[in-house]
Amino acid sequence: MTNTQVTLVQLDNYGPWTVTPSPRREVDLQTMQSRMYADLSQAFGMRDGYVFFTRFDNMIAVTNGLDLEDHARIQESVRNRYPVTVSLSMGTGPSPADALVDATAALQDQGSAQDADRREALLGQPIPEAERTDDDVQIAHFDVVDATGTYTDQLDAFSSFAHIEQGYATLMRYMHDAHDSLSFFVGGDNIIAVCPDLSTADYADAIDHVSATAGVDVRVGVGRGTSAHDAGMGAKHALEDARDHESDVEVLPEP
Amino acid sequence: MTNTQVTLVQLDNYGPWTVTPSPRREVDLQTMQSRMYADLSQAFGMRDGYVFFTRFDNMIAVTNGLDLEDHARIQESVRNRYPVTVSLSMGTGPSPADALVDATAALQDQGSAQDADRREALLGQPIPEAERTDDDVQIAHFDVVDATGTYTDQLDAFSSFAHIEQGYATLMRYMHDAHDSLSFFVGGDNIIAVCPDLSTADYADAIDHVSATAGVDVRVGVGRGTSAHDAGMGAKHALEDARDHESDVEVLPEP
Amino acid sequence: MTNTQVTLVQLDNYGPWTVTPSPRREVDLQTMQSRMYADLSQAFGMRDGYVFFTRFDNMIAVTNGLDLEDHARIQESVRNRYPVTVSLSMGTGPSPADALVDATAALQDQGSAQDADRREALLGQPIPEAERTDDDVQIAHFDVVDATGTYTDQLDAFSSFAHIEQGYATLMRYMHDAHDSLSFFVGGDNIIAVCPDLSTADYADAIDHVSATAGVDVRVGVGRGTSAHDAGMGAKHALEDARDHESDVEVLPEP
Amino acid sequence: MTNTQVTLVQLDNYGPWTVTPSPRREVDLQTMQSRMYADLSQAFGMRDGYVFFTRFDNMIAVTNGLDLEDHARIQESVRNRYPVTVSLSMGTGPSPADALVDATAALQDQGSAQDADRREALLGQPIPEAERTDDDVQIAHFDVVDATGTYTDQLDAFSSFAHIEQGYATLMRYMHDAHDSLSFFVGGDNIIAVCPDLSTADYADAIDHVSATAGVDVRVGVGRGTSAHDAGMGAKHALEDARDHESDVEVLPEP
Ligand SMILES: Nc1nc2c(ncn2[C@@H]2O[C@H](COP(=O)(O)OP(=O)(O)OP(=O)(O)O)[C@@H](O)[C@H]2O)c(=O)[nH]1
Ligand SMILES: Nc1nc2c(ncn2[C@@H]2O[C@H](COP(=O)(O)OP(=O)(O)OP(=O)(O)O)[C@@H](O)[C@H]2O)c(=O)[nH]1
Ligand SMILES: Nc1nc2c(ncn2[C@@H]2O[C@H](COP(=O)(O)OP(=O)(O)OP(=O)(O)O)[C@@H](O)[C@H]2O)c(=O)[nH]1
Ligand SMILES: Nc1nc2c(ncn2[C@@H]2O[C@H](COP(=O)(O)OP(=O)(O)OP(=O)(O)O)[C@@H](O)[C@H]2O)c(=O)[nH]1
Ligand SMILES: [Ca+2]
Ligand SMILES: [Ca+2]
Ligand SMILES: [Ca+2]
Ligand SMILES: [Ca+2]
């Protein structure tokens, strides 16, 4: 059974900062946001975690293996290098969606995202080291079939993007509502979903739904592991298998 | 009348690179992609351009004021600092959507996005300096009304994101199909659209459409200028006016 | 005759910040400092300027071609993305050393580097566009002869570094005292000097001095141009010529 | 007794790359080098290591606590995000200088720094976890007394730098030759030395030597710990004590 540790990363009181004393240059905001995301990606990644950019002012991470001290250090490193600070809130459980519900609620209890007095909250408890297992994290790596031939080389760049975006929007809602999963666009034509213990049939369903609703053909590789990195790398290898076998769903290690 | 100069930035043969010789760590890909975007944001931004991350492997920039040499330098700087290279293709015209169609077609003519032999294409012609005017770029900065109170502080972080994402998906399709505009999510609850010469009524329409279809309330500030930065900063100030006046659409400078 | 525009970049009140409220992690300070340097290098570089890291809390740039607005934008971009701010002060003149004396004095007049009330000074006047010439900047790129064979592959890494450092210390003092030049270590075994109008004999002298005093053999390529980049790229090509001809000094374009 | 684990980071075949096919823009090289250093600083730092920029093409790290897998991951992350690769070689022992001698020799055995066939060497063995103690790392943080009042606010920026540089050059040689220590300039007026088990009298000696030889007054805080971070943070607090007590040498925890 999965036991995902999810961390919500929320920039503290960021909206007001963007317009104080007057609106800041958009290119600087974009640079600051994407660099913070890149830094968090390396910082969580050094300990086998994943983080997704989501809204950039609210990012979602899978942090199995990172304890409170690791979180505190990442929080401190942001404070030491950026003009803004972050709050971090952890939730855990078999359902990634529910774990995030808990993490969010704990942070909301401390005050609003735009509360000038709520800074650098550090909330929640990691999964105790002794309770961690090889099945804690399940990650599904979805990929559009022949995106280059179907979209990139055929349509204008915005229309290509619009199709992929529509595929993503459809998939993310379905996986959330039907399967308690958190799905994130990670660039190109790729979507990574953090899932509970789903079956091959569940994934096949999701793929059919996206094809029927958005007209976009995807395949998926699924991996499991003790950390986001382990599960995610399994998913990538499974996806390569799916490409090789021209199959829709592959799971590694096989159940 | 607007005359937008759009540049398509396409990573060369990037898909194969991500899995050669075997799948690369996702956190490294994320870091590499978001840092390249951050760098391009500063590089185009130093000359008053804007760039949007879009798919990360295909980014779209508004580059009025940047000539071929500026583009070549940016291309060279990527080559000197990244393991991958980029192709750049410019298109211009009153319709941003059409300008991008031209830019994309020119690049497709040179070969596939996954053609190992097509590297560092540099295509298209910038608007001649003598033809540039103060009305060349129109930018609309859309923002969700009270996103903090309605979503961020109320729902779990993924559901908040899903609502904003749905608002974005609806708006981006409408603005593209009805108004030849290119709209991009820029983080938080903000969407920036690159538009032709639209009226206040056109923007009001789009806002109504998003409210009716996705149930998300947005307002918009619109700016015009000789560059993306000028127009975009006007849009930000107009948005502040809209917040102050609690209005839906504000335009600066007033027509 | 040269007419170098030098800009002093000074972090505002940085010392106190590093220990408030208690000493900050060294790795974060190192990251912050080196990233700011990298950013300034790109920002000045987009407009053909050079910046040297020097002390990191005080950096020295060659900014021929950048006006006050360019400086202001760079200052603003730092403010928008870093937890600290910078002051900028320009000086100009035929002697790079004297130009920096003027730039420093103007900034000192505004208050101490550790004055909490002196923030984001922006001082000095750029060379008027009409007065700029192709000879304004002279740059010498010094390089240790066969550093790999003599040091890197022979000695332990610290001893190699100590030799190169000693060569640098000797050269930088000689070039400053004898030739009003500002010399900077730029990594590896390379030193870049910003010089007034020096002759081939002057450079040969300096090389002899370093060889006699520090026992380190260097050669140099010299370039001239309207900007740091133009002169610096000339110097690099001249250095390649010196390697090819096994000569000590090469100048491009030949006088 | 100390037992320092030192890692030599060497860019593979970097010199030829900088001029292939023709000399690369200096600003891009500077950006690439300083960003790689910043990244390594975070990567080693996440596991309590320190890295020093040294020559940038050869960097020296203190890596107590990082095992081979950690090193391999850092090496992979560089490969995934930069146009160049790095070799890593570890040495250990009571003398930091000797540990580096071993690390360097092992790497030299694999081929030249400019050998096109020697890529991504990963050499040496970390200190076994069971042998690590609280005294393994001794770090001394040297700082110029009132650098702001004596230099920065008084002299021109280059002359200030030249004085500090001279202090550094003198200190680094003395600490290496007399005390088997590796000293690195870390910006501003700060020097961090990685030392064997030195006494307060040893440090006092070094300070006297720098004052007598280079005319630069420094004080030092010394810390000990199981990692570079622990020892380094102790050194920073000791330095604050030295400032408070106006003493020359402070050691934490007191022996
Ligand atoms: N984040 C991420 N993006 C990837 C990865 N692999 C590929 N991509 C992206 O996906 C885009 C398309 O590449 P592919 O999926 O290989 O190409 P395709 O044409 O769809 O071909 P097939 O997927 O093999 O049918 C690339 O430009 C990348 O942006 C990955 O591992 N992670
Ligand atoms: N890219 C970008 N994002 C912004 C900007 N201003 C705000 N944001 C984002 O928008 C989020 C929400 O902030 P606001 O829009 O100020 O907050 P709100 O609760 O919606 O309040 P109102 O918009 O004033 O009704 C922030 O966390 C930022 O992520 C901006 O200028 N550019
Ligand atoms: N900043 C900078 N550093 C360079 C440049 N070219 C080389 N280097 C550095 O110099 C180091 C040594 O390379 P080379 O100078 O090519 O090697 P060498 O063994 O001294 O050989 P020769 O100089 O050809 O005699 C490299 O590792 C780089 O760090 C450059 O253009 N700029
Ligand atoms: N790398 C690093 N640099 C520091 C640190 N603290 C200060 N600095 C640098 O040192 C410079 C001078 O600051 P201080 O040493 O506080 O100033 P000072 O005038 O010498 O005053 P005292 O040292 O208190 O006598 C700053 O601008 C920083 O560049 C630190 O912890 N690490
Ligand atoms: Ca695909
Ligand atoms: Ca809003
Ligand atoms: Ca050399
Ligand atoms: Ca000091």
Automatic annotation (TrEMBL), chains A, B, C, D:
One of its GO terms (molecular function) is GTP cyclohydrolase IIa activity. The keyword Membrane does not apply. InterPro entries: GTP_CycHdrlase_3, Nucleotide_cyclase, Rev_trsase/Diguanyl_cyclase. It is an enzyme of class 3 (hydrolase). It holds the Pfam family GCH_III. Residues 237-248 have a biased composition (Basic and acidic residues). It catalyses: GTP + 3 H2O = 2-amino-5-formylamino-6-(5-phospho-D-ribosylamino)pyrimidin-4(3H)-one + 2 phosphate + 2 H(+). Residues 229-255 are annotated as: Disordered. Keywords: GTP-binding, Hydrolase, Nucleotide-binding. It comes from the Archaea. Its EC number is 3.5.4.29. Catalyzes the formation of 2-amino-5-formylamino-6-ribofuranosylamino-4(3H)-pyrimidinone ribonucleotide monophosphate and inorganic phosphate from GTP. Also has an independent pyrophosphate phosphohydrolase activity. Belongs to the archaeal-type GTP cyclohydrolase family. This is GTP cyclohydrolase III.
